[in-house]
Write a structure and sequence with these properties.
alpha/beta; 7-stranded mixed sheet; 5-stranded parallel sheet; 14 helices; 22 strands; globular; binds 1,4-dihydronicotinamide adenine dinucleotide
């Protein structure tokens, strides 16, 4: 065999798997047909967060007048913004390249395809290995009739380049993480943004209260959000792209936009890998079927991780799965069994981990809910923030924390406290008894836990 392990795909899942396996002494190769780092580093998480940072700075400059500071109208050099974003990406991707070198992971450039049980062909050359990790990720989903043209109709990759000028009107189809994050970016740069979402709430499976709170905040920022609304058709006219949308009641409206962003989910890249040659099953949606907690497929020498394996399609979940697969391939008993936090990096951020209130009830728990609105947080006041909330879901019988949902500043960082609490089996009381520094936004987590026990200091408690 040429290698102990070949990883196909160098996104967050793939590079974690490759590096961890190499750390454990395996001879490892990683196959990549595009740029090292996958979607996350090149055209996903990292460049989006770079743009969101610029967006936040722009809004910060504008909003400063409320505190008595006037920066005037910011001058934006879009080409410089783009260069900065690309520099951030380059720094991250070259970091992965260096980690590969440092850990002696061989990078095989080209498209990988199984040609036998233990053989993968890359750029016309066959490589053999004992074991494989499939980490080929996902690609944007499409809507028939809304074909991308790189100008009027774009996907998330297209939206990463604002172009020569900021579109006056942006229509976003889909209010998931991608749609909402770009809605934030473009709105901050000055676009008039409309978001159209098929489901009754934004932010997908988020807790209903958190979803409402985020929608309220984004609308306050000037975005128009249409839920329970689907897009019907589009046509290019002299005025722009006219998109016909239809509400639940069958009422139609034509929305004219300069750019239309299609952000309606992603599809797994399970096809075209020659998986049949390795005897690996793929389901009807294109997900490579994972059969156990070690991330093995039905062919035990082949693992599948990340977006190509199963939902949720999140980089950190892929990283954890990559580590589990690598360790198991190296003979360790590692298994995947952790909660998955999720963050939408809008302002305010929406972060959650564990069960929503509805999920906990559906699972048969008698729930105990603790809430704390950030309007009662001293730190939020100092930041000029008036909305936002923390909502904790506990098991009324054992007091164990089941879920955390937050809308507000730093929610994406604070969620890690809740993830750890859930992993450790912490109770609401544990959280309430833990000192949180004052004044911080994280105090709201403690006070939500206190509220669950009827002893919050800064808000009215329910009579128990
Ligand atoms: P998504 O599945 O999260 O959201 C897509 C939304 O589009 C859904 O709410 C869906 O109901 C709606 N939709 C579908 N068809 C529609 C139509 N015809 N008209 C109107 N609405 C329609 O997918 P998204 O936002 O594209 O993201 C893809 C994946 O990438 C997700 O799994 C997401 O979690 C992940 N991601 C995560 C990020 C983060 O963690 N911050 C950032 C970006 C992406």
């Amino acid at each position: 065999m040429d290698f102990d392990l070949i990883v196909i795909g160098s996104g967050p899942g793939g590079y974690h798997a490759a590096i961890r396996a190499a750390q454990l002494g395996l001879k490892v190769a990683c196959v990549e047909k595009g740029a090292v780092g996958g979607v996350c580093l090149n055209v996903g998480c990292i460049p989006t967060k770079a743009l969101l940072h610029v967006a936040a700075e722009l809004r910060g400059a504008k909003d400063a007048s409320a505190f008595g500071v006037d920066f005037g109208t910011p001058k934006v050099d879009l080409a410089a913004v783009d260069r900065w974003k690309l520099d951030v990406v380059k720094k991250q991707t070259s970091g992965v390249g260096m980690l590969f070198k440092g850990n002696k992971v061989t990078l095989l450039e080209g498209e990988g395809r199984f040609t036998g049980k233990n053989t993968v062909e890359v750029a016309g050359k066959a490589y053999t290995a004992e074991k494989f990790v499939i980490a080929t990720g996902s690609r944007p989903a499409a809507i028939p009739g809304f074909e991308l043209d790189g100008d009027r109709i774009i996907d998330s990759t297209g939206a990463l380049t604002i172009g020569a000028s900021v579109p006056a009107r942006l229509l976003v189809i889909g209010a998931g993480a991608i749609g909402l994050e770009f809605a934030d970016v473009y709105s901050s740069f000055g676009s008039e943004v409309t978001v159209v979402e098929m489901l009754p709430q934004i932010a997908g499976a988020a807790d209903a209260d958190a979803s409402k709170e985020l929608a309220k905040a984004l609308e306050k920022r000037g975005m128009r959000i249409l839920t329970s609304t689907k897009v019907v058709s589009q046509k290019a006219t002299a005025k722009g792209t006219e998109v016909t949308v239809e509400g639940q009641d069958g009422k139609r409206e034509v929305i004219t936009a300069d750019r239309v962003l299609v952000a309606v989910g992603r599809r797994p890249n399970g096809a075209g890998l020659g998986l049949e040659a390795a005897g690996v099953q793929v389901d009807e949606r294109g997900f490579v079927t994972v059969v156990n907690d070690h991330m093995q497929t039905n062919a035990p020498h082949v693992y599948a991780i990340g977006d190509v394996a199963r939902a949720p399609l999140l980089a950190h979940k892929a990283m954890k799965e990559g580590i589990v697969a690598a360790e198991h391939a190296a003979g360790m008993p590692s298994a995947y069994d952790t909660v998955v936090p999720s963050v939408i990096y809008t302002e305010p951020e929406l972060a959650s981990v564990g069960m929503t209130e509805a999920e906990a009830k559906e699972a048969g728990f008698e729930v105990r809910v603790g809430r704390f609105p950030l309007s009662a947080s001293g730190r939020a006041s100092t930041l000029g923030v008036s909305g936002g909330l923390v909502k904790l879901i506990g098991d009324a019988k054992t007091d164990i924390l089941l879920g955390f949902h937050m809308v507000g500043p730093n929610a994406g960082d604070i969620v890690s406290e809740a993830a750890l609490a859930i992993e450790m089996g912490a109770t609401l009381e544990d959280i309430a008894l833990t000192q949180h520094p004052h004044p911080t936004i994280s105090e709201a987590v403690m006070e939500a836990a206190e509220h669950a026990h009827g002893k919050a200091i800064h808000i009215a408690n329910r009579r128990r």
